[in-house]
Amino acid sequence: MKVYVIGIGLIGGSMALDIKALQPNSTIFGIDANEKHLQEAIDLGVIDLAGKIEDLASADFVIVSVPVDVAMVVLPTVLDAIGDDTIVFEVGSTKMPICEAVANHPKRRNFIATHPIAGTEFSGPSAAIHGLFEGKTNIICEVEKTAFKLQEKALELFRDLGMRIRYMEPKSHDKHIAYVSHLSHISSFMLGKTVINKEKHEQDIFDMAGSGFESTVRLAKSSPAMWTPIFKQNRKQVIKTLEEYISNLTQFKDLLINEDYNAIFEEMESVNRIKEILNGMKK
Amino acid sequence: MKVYVIGIGLIGGSMALDIKALQPNSTIFGIDANEKHLQEAIDLGVIDLAGKIEDLASADFVIVSVPVDVAMVVLPTVLDAIGDDTIVFEVGSTKMPICEAVANHPKRRNFIATHPIAGTEFSGPSAAIHGLFEGKTNIICEVEKTAFKLQEKALELFRDLGMRIRYMEPKSHDKHIAYVSHLSHISSFMLGKTVINKEKHEQDIFDMAGSGFESTVRLAKSSPAMWTPIFKQNRKQVIKTLEEYISNLTQFKDLLINEDYNAIFEEMESVNRIKEILNGMKK
User: Fold this and answer.
1) In this complex, how many residue pairs, one in chain A and one in chain B, have their CB atoms less than 8 Å apart?
2) Do B219 and A216 touch (CB under 8 A)?
3) Which positions in chain B touch A266 (Cβ < 8 Å)?
4) How confident is the model at residue A198 (pLDDT cuts 50, 70, 90)?
5) ipTM exceeding the 0.90 mark
6) Residue A276: which pLDDT band, with cuts at 50, 70 and 90?
7) Which CATH number fits domain B2-169: 3.30.300.110, 3.40.50.720, 3.30.70.560, 1.10.275.10?
8) B203 at the A interface (CB within 8 A)?
9) Within a 10 A sphere around the Cβ of B44, how many other Cβ atoms?
């Protein structure tokens, strides 16, 4: 089996590691605009060899795992180059612009739009880890637009990686993911900014930070090159969630200004049910 | 050695467990307004016996680990009841109101104001764990107001628990802790609220949540009974940090509205140095 991974970072690299472990006879080719990353991926054993777009005709799988703005440009070129039995999938955090970009491509039926809800705050080939997708959700959009035989091939791989599948329209995906992923990243970045700005004048503030702070700012380590185009592509939904979040924070602040501690207690108590929701996530 | 723990939850209970492990011959008495918690603490082996305020005269250590509003009321009563060689310490997340509440007490020199920067999002006796304080920071306020001999006794215990000590004025403590702890909690609670409100109409939204969301909303599981009085006591500082946070979020939203993606990239890139800061925390 020939697998091409375009963009050898956290997601593409982790898929490469798992596929190689599942199918030791497969050959994993890597394609990356960053020559250093490509060499690093080979040195780390994340991929077997460097590949070329011109060779995609013989590929079984092509995994496009690049920032979502790059995916818009790369995907049509990839589809132009593949063979009739190649299945291409893309793993980015926005789905509507990607699906639109390939909607009228003659090889649309060789493409499957996915979003594996898996990751860490790290990036690059050295961030690739085994088992990243085990027990995670993979959201698949517009499955009906993919050729049935190729759907089956992709789904078998996702199952082998340990993922559960959810089908969704690209528009719903982008709307919902703004709440449960994109907003969390902005919340974390801006929390980091607020504290860093303070710390400029107060060097020892971080001596006082505990695991709670660390947990809420963890996502502020994420890659701006990956996240800027996500926010750009999902701009309207992200603005909407930010407006709601800012409004909730402002309301909480007003309760504090007005010293309405009963309401503050009730606010927190009603959000406490996030416990059960998060427990449900782990099932 | 006789140790009294007033309020057997996450912090008091975890201290009890560690002290018993360090000094197996000590007796750990528990005092708690919640009878169920008291019995649970005995059943779990977190404490040895139920104690009484009237018996504090013979105590070596009294640990007051109750919500900060309760601490204001309980501390003077505790100081009234203790013996000359008893050292009392309180572990809450605000220090100025507590220090003021005992400032003129005749037994002020038997008290040491502390804030161990340690915890989890859980509460109650079942949340008590061994080793919670290992490698953590303990902030001590107004150390000069504690009798030297009793300071030594307390510091020896904190060292045995594995904590490093930082001395700070109560006012600085409350100002800084608003940034690195109190704000994180509100950010997390309001993020949870924003997503829960959305989810009322969109049941499957949480199917899409990954570890990033989980990390940013973890603190929204925290106890409202513990956190409401913290926000009340540190109201001015918390309002200030919230204003700065809301202003940063609004500015980010405006960059999105104006489609200034270079500025968005730069915002995130400049916050990325939180990586080094968080790594520094682990040292």
Assistant:
1) 298
2) yes
3) 224
4) confident
5) yes
6) confident
7) 3.40.50.720
8) no
9) 14
Which residue, among A223, A215, A226, A207, has the nearest Cα to A191 in the 3D structure?
A215
pLDDT digits (tens, 9 = 90+) for B106-162: 999 999 999 999 988 888 999 999 999 999 999 999 999 999 999 999 999 999 999
Hey, are the CB atoms on A205 and B176 less than 8 Å from each other?
A: yes
pLDDT above 90 for B209 = no
State the average pLDDT for chain B: 94
DSSP assignment, residue B178? I
pLDDT of residue A79: 98
CATH class of A2-170: alpha beta
Using DSSP's 3-state secondary structure scheme, residue B78 falls into helix
Partners of B278 on chain A (C-beta within 8 Å) are: 214, 217-218, 221
How buried is B167 (Cβ within 10 angstroms: 0-12 exposed, 13-18 middle, 19+ buried)?
exposed
**pLDDT beyond 80 at B205:** no
Classify A173-282 by CATH class. mainly alpha
A117, A35 contact by CB (below 8 A): no
Choices 1.10.287.3510, 1.10.3660.10, 1.10.10.10, 3.40.30.10: CATH for B173-281 = 1.10.3660.10
Question: Measured between beta carbons, which residues in chain A are less than 8 angstroms from residue B206?
Answer: 180, 277, 280-281
